[in-house]
Amino acid sequence: MELNTLLKKYQHEFAAVVPFNWQSDKVLKLDLTAGNPDLHTIDLNDTKVFEAYLFGKIKQANAVCGFGGYMENRYIYQKRDHFQHSDESRSIHLGVDIWAKAGTPVFTPLAGKIHSFQNNDNFGDYGPTIIVEHELENTIFFTLYGHLDLASLNGLFEGKFIEKGQRIASFGDYPVNGNWPPHLHFQVISEMQGKKGDFWGVCKPSEKDKFSIICPDANIVLKLDEKFYE
């Protein structure tokens, strides 16, 4: 069964990944594309300035968090060397971001085992990252948690069993989290392609179709209310 279909089949069984209630809490969808004029007026390489902008928007909306990003063509990566390549820059976001204060807890949506973990310590990268391996109906897939705090990596080892709904991490702060305003990058991956502790979270526009199959919409697992998500 296609992973996208399988996830939808079991969607009602997934535990919450973050401590917010999508039905009762107010959340703000953030636009990080070139179509957002605000992004052209601030220094996106200055994390403190970028954080003030994002969290100012969240506070203004009286929301508990901001979110968005799956397959969004993001302007914000144009200012970070990590995403620049000689042939074509990466700008298509493959996960869903949840923007909230550092220290926000992170939980696993279903049982699994630690596939791998590492600190991707580059400007614009994931920072501390955990990847968990899951299985449904004999289908193996993975969930990735990026931009964590360093303490989230303590006590981990490959193969460690993780229970459904178990707290495994916390949102990190910059500069530890890859120099981003505090948020969780959550991504679903069908095959790791030999990678450990890391996986592409942003792809080139020309590779969008390929990666949409490898990385189905993480919103299916997060269960963000459809009225907020397009």
TrEMBL record:
SUPFAM superfamilies: Duplicated hybrid motif (SSF51261). One of its GO terms (molecular function) is metalloendopeptidase activity. InterPro entries: Cell_wall_metabolism_enzyme (IPR050570), Dup_hybrid_motif (IPR011055), M23ase_b-sheet_dom (IPR016047). Residues 92-190 form the M23ase beta-sheet core domain. PANTHER family: MUREIN HYDROLASE ACTIVATOR ENVC (PTHR21666:SF270), PEPTIDASE-RELATED (PTHR21666). This is Peptidase family M23.
